[in-house]
Fold this sequence. Notes:
mainly alpha, Rossmann fold, elongated
Amino acid sequence: MPLMSVAGDHAKNDMAGEEDDSWKSIFTKAGIQCVPILKGTAEYQEFVDIWVSHIRGPLSHFD
């Protein structure tokens, strides 16, 4: 599972793609079952809540 805000092109291709050099292919060839979860942290409300709480202070200077 990528620890990125968005599971974009890098996650879909380099990590979970079908190419021989993707992480999924490398792990699979090594005998490790791999089930990619292509969901970025910004798709989880809990992470969004943390980010929003962290930017509230700096943004309050613009009120």
